[in-house]
Write a sequence for this structure.
């Protein structure tokens, strides 16, 4: 039943509840207690989550042929050929697409989003802009939902830009810190580069299909021909790379950690940064017929997974390590969707949302209790002081490293397994090597934070952990533990739900295909990483200083993240800024003399009109008009055919 | 219909103008006999006149007529511009009602001049004859020259009036000179006669056309004929500036559009220099706005750019182009009047709230006016869900259909929009940034201003969210070459 009322109204309500929450906070927030703002924001997201669950159950109980819904608003318009915008030949409807893929994202965005909203109630308590924070967070949820629910590329782009805006606002939330503002600006600029990529893809899509609707494009995707599809795929990839912090547009994500920790957990770990994965999975009919673009996706993902993991090995800021880890894990997902293992990529997105949000929230508890300290060199021995954070962090780490039976084990192995099934041994090798690096940097982080001698920091301030912070963390501990069990050998609970969304792709294999070799290799690699971290950080021996000395150049390279930032600085920033200041100096002396000139002008205006007349201002205006007249006249005559026409009549 | 000296006159077609003229005369009569306490009555008569004139247009709908021996047209095209003019007259009178005695000028003269200026604009909107165009334009201009100086206790107002009258006369001279040359080359004053001459353009014709465009370009403030705008806008009384920004542009655009379509029809290539003026205007207007510290000056520069946008609609071929222009004009009128109304609301008839230094943190002190201002700025910048967005979309589509010049116009429109995003975004950002309230809270809360603000905001939102309501203008225009 495509037309039943619930499936018609629920998507709209889900989408606009968070926006409504934001508007209500904005309008009535200043007049009520700040706790009310937090309650409104939480209820809006919780309501959206509950409705999403109901909608998901409704959709998944339908026959597979009926599991892809396209809902148009207002409903009456679809029947009467009315559109939100009609600029022939372009027509755009406000349509939402509900299928397994979008539902998976919606569930995580609202579900994990709600937990992080709840966590923020306690975490942000000291913030001066408490209400604003929740308004922004609701805005983000709305934009992210629009991104994943959109039924055509135009609304996708609106959501895409919206999450960029919310991300910008929240990274720069502590606007009195220049570092936060700079990081916000950087993130915005890099994301806009990606937006332009998607726009170019949209132009090409429109040129080839005359439509921006998923439905119409995907139905005759082969009509465009492989070269065009490759270009479309490449431009979409540019958008994905920017949003998901993949090479080479990745440098904004580590800086984005300047935002409050709940923001890092929600936007820069669990949801927004995976939008690139969603985009490739959503555009899978295009990538299925664009082998070169798909290959580019896979290579970018694999390279990012590996390189980000190497950088993570030498960072000292607890959140930056997690940021590089996020880049690396999203690299896995991009890799998966690049080779066509869409279900595996989606699966890893789900489990990653659980355990990475958990890790960030545990880190948040630590930072909160240490009065803002983020440098792990100033931590140590926290396992006894903050046992709850330790256990949470340990579960997150085990899940991230893919230890059986934690959630990461199932999803990461699904990806690695599919790589071999689909005959990509080189990518598989890199993926497995990345697993070793992952275990190394995570246990290095765990040891330096919670063990490695005693506490190295200054006297800590005990902010305490309020219930609103510990409850969501406890829930996520559970999810990070069992979240992977929807797919176990012999039982694949995810693929059937996604199958309708990917009905048109050939590479949709079930996820319950486990091969012992892949799992053992991944576990072995993880063990190597763990042992290395243990030997270097928990067993003080002569080994560490020796290694440090001999590997100093490599350390420098990694600590500076391969000097990508510095390269961008010299390649783009310096020339542009130099040029701009030159222009300002030569073309606009007033900009330099700014204030003085403004004062002078105000004083002049106070003088009487006669003096102005004598000073020649009006004459100058008149003169400029006369020059304009001469030019316009000459142009008219020239364009009318010059002398030939003059002889006319 | 009655015949007068061999000329048939359609009284219904002239009714709106006659009603408004009656209102203007009544204002002057009442002013003669009334006391200062009846000040509000004068503005009320003007507003009632505007409403009445609008009502007399109802029976006209669907009956396009040309009257006064083909010199004056009453058709869908003129009605739309008439409505914009009447609306801006009503809003201007609303805002003017807050004027106080020390602001200068007698209220009777002030209100009557505004009404007569609007009549001049309506004459222009229906003019199908070079002479009538000039008559309307002069009636509009002369009234405004005086109105610009109506704030004469302030030196800036005197300065504005003087500059406006000097440069305006120069422009009128070009216009009448151009009209004379067009008459000379075509042998007739009606636009139909000029149309006949346009098929074989002579040097005389082209020169006349160029000077005519210059004259109108001055009234429209197209660059490079815009230099008077910032000073005059800043110096004139606030409500007069609002009227200038909307009514003068609407009337001049009506003339330009009618001339374009009656004289050139589908082949507008001879007007290419006009497109160049539009391109320069979009750039000059938006870039010039960047560094303004006075909101009236800023809106002046903004209006230069906005007119540039609207000319893109002329470059588009046929009625579709005109309907895009009409939509944008209505959107522009709503937002610009709304923005001025917010300023008037905050100023409350007292010191003008034009210094941008007073706006940071406004949202915390006066949330609703700040929200309305943000909405108007968003519309001017063309943010979705506002009228300005859809207007720009329509104009862009017209540009795309208009060949290489259209493409150049479109590109400039987009570039200009990006620049203007910064200009308007900066102010909105300032209003909503969390600056501690330093300045005093503006207390203005006058009902007339609120009415104007609400009307502007409502219109901006309705046109932005449901642009199809404007579909009445879709089967547009009966002014094509006959």
């Amino acid at each position: 039943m495509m037309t039943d009322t619930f499936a018609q109204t629920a998507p709209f309500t889900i989408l606009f509840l968070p926006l409504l929450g934001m508007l209500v906070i904005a309008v009535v927030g200043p007049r009520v207690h700040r706790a009310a703002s937090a309650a409104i924001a939480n209820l809006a997201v919780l309501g959206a989550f509950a409705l999403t669950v109901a909608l998901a159950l409704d959709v998944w109980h339908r026959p597979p042929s009926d599991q892809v819904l396209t809902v148009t608003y207002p409903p009456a318009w679809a029947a009467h050929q009315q559109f939100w915008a009609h600029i022939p030949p372009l027509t755009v409807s406000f349509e939402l697409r509900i299928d397994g893929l979008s539902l998976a994202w919606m569930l995580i965005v609202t579900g994990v989003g709600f937990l992080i909203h709840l966590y923020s109630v306690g975490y942000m308590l000291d913030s001066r802009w408490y209400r604003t924070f929740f308004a922004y967070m609701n805005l983000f949820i709305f934009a992210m939902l629009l991104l994943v629910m959109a039924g055509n590329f135009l609304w996708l782009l609106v959501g895409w830009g919206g999450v960029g805006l919310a991300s910008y606002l929240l990274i720069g939330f502590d606007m009195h810190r220049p570092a936060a503002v700079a990081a916000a600006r950087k993130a915005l600029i890099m994301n806009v580069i990606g937006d332009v990529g998607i726009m170019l893809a949209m132009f090409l899509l429109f040129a080839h299909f005359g439509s921006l609707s998923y439905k119409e494009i995907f139905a005759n995707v082969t009509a465009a021909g492989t070269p065009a599809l490759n270009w479309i795929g490449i431009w979409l990839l540019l958008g994905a790379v920017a949003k998901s912090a993949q090479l080479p547009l990745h440098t904004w994500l580590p800086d984005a950690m300047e935002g409050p920790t709940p923001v890092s957990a929600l936007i820069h770990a669990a949801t927004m940064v995976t939008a690139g994965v969603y985009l490739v999975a959503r555009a899978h009919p295009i990538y299925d017929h664009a082998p070169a673009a798909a290959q580019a996706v896979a290579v970018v993902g694999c390279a990012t997974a590996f390189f980000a993991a190497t950088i993570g090995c030498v960072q000292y800021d607890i959140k930056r390590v997690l940021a590089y880890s996020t880049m690396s894990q999203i690299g896995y997902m991009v890799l998966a969707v690049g080779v066509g293992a869409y279900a595996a990529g989606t699966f890893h997105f789900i489990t990653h949302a659980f355990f990475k949000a958990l890790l960030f929230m545990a880190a948040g508890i630590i930072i909160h209790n240490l009065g803002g300290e983020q440098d792990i060199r100033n931590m140590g021995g926290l396992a006894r002081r903050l046992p709850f954070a330790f256990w949470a962090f340990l579960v997150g780490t085990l899940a991230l490293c893919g230890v059986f039976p934690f959630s990461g084990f199932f999803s990461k192995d699904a990806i690695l397994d599919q790589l071999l099934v689909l005959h990509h041994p080189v990518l598989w090798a890199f993926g497995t090597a990345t697993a070793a690096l992952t275990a190394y940097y995570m246990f290095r982080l765990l040891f330096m934070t919670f063990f490695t001698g005693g506490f190295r920091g200054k006297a800590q301030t005990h902010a305490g952990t309020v219930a609103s912070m510990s409850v969501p963390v406890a829930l996520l501990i559970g999810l990070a533990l069992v979240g992977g069990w929807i797919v176990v050998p012999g039982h694949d609970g995810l693929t059937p739900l996604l199958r309708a969304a990917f009905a048109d792709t050939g590479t949709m294999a079930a996820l319950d295909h486990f091969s012992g070799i892949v799992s053992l290799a991944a576990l072995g690699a993880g063990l190597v990483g763990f042992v290395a971290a243990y030997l270097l950080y928990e067993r003080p021996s002569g080994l560490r200083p020796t290694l440090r000395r001999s590997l100093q150049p490599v350390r420098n390279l990694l600590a500076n993240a391969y000097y990508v930032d510095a390269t961008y600085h010299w390649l783009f920033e310096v020339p542009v800024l130099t040029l701009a200041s030159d222009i300002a100096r030569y073309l606009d002396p007033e900009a330099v003399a700014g204030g003085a000139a403004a004062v002078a002008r105000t004083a002049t205006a106070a003088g009487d009109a006669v003096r102005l007349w004598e000073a020649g201002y009006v004459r100058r205006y008149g003169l400029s008009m006369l020059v304009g007249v001469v030019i316009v006249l000459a142009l008219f005559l020239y364009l009318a055919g010059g002398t030939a026409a003059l002889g006319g009549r | 219909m009655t015949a007068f000296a061999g000329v048939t006159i359609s009284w219904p077609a002239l009714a709106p103008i006659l009603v408004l003229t009656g209102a203007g005369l009544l204002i002057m009569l009442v002013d003669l006999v009334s006391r200062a306490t009846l000040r509000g009555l004068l503005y009320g008569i003007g507003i009632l006149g505007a409403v009445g004139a609008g009502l007399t247009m109802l029976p006209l709908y669907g009956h396009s007529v040309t009257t006064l021996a083909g010199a004056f047209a009453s058709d869908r095209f003129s009605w739309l511009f008439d409505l914009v003019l009447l609306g801006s007259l009503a809003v201007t009178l609303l805002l003017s009602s807050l004027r106080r005695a020390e602001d200068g000028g007698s209220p009777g003269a002030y209100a009557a001049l505004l009404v007569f200026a609007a009549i001049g604009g309506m004459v222009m909107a229906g003019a199908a004859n070079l002479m009538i165009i000039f008559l309307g334009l002069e009636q509009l201009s002369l009234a405004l020259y005086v109105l610009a100086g109506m704030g004469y206790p302030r030196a800036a107002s005197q300065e504005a009036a003087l500059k406006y009258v000097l440069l305006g006369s120069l422009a009128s001279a070009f216009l009448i000179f151009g009209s004379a040359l067009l008459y000379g080359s075509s042998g007739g004053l009606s636009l139909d006669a000029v149309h006949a001459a346009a098929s074989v353009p002579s040097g005389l014709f082209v020169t006349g056309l160029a000077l005519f465009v210059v004259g109108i370009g001055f009234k429209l403030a197209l660059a490079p004929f815009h230099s008077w705008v910032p000073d005059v806008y800043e110096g004139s009384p606030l409500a007069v500036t609002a009227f200038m920004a909307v009514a003068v542009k609407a009337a001049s655009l009506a003339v330009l559009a009618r001339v374009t379509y009656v004289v050139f029809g589908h082949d507008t290539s001879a007007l290419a220099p006009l497109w160049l003026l539009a391109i320069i205007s979009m750039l000059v207007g938006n870039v010039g706005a960047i560094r303004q510290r006075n909101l009236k000056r800023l809106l002046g520069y903004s209006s230069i750019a906005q007119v540039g946008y609207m000319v893109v609609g002329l470059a588009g071929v046929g009625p579709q182009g005109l309907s895009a222009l009409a939509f944008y004009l209505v959107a522009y009128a709503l937002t610009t009047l709304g923005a001025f109304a917010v300023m008037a609301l905050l100023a409350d008839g007292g010191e003008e709230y034009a210094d941008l230094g007073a706006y940071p943190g406004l949202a915390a002190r006066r949330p609703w006016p700040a929200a309305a201002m943000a909405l108007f700025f968003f519309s001017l910048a063309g943010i979705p869900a506002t009228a300005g967005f859809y207007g720009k979309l329509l104009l862009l589509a017209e540009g795309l259909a208009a060949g290489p010049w259209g493409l150049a116009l479109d590109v400039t429109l987009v570039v200009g929009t990006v620049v203007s995003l910064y200009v308007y975004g900066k102010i909105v950002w300032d209003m909503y940034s969390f600056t501690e309230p330093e300045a005093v809270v503006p207390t203005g809360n006058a009902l007339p201003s609120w009415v104007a603000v609400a009307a502007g905001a409502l219109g901006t939102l309705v046109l932005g969210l449901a642009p199809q309501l404007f579909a009445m203008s879709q089967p547009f225009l009966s002014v094509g070459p006959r």
In short: Strands of chain A lie at 69-73, 85-87, 90-92, 94-98, 487-488, 491-492. The interface with chain B takes residues 30, 82, 85, 87, 129, 158, 175, 590-591, 598, 605-609, 612-613, 617-618, 620-622, 624-625, 627-629, 631-633, 635-637, 639-641, 645-649 of chain A (CB under 8 Å). The two ends of chain A are 74 Å apart (CA to CA). The longest helix of chain A spans residues 178-209.
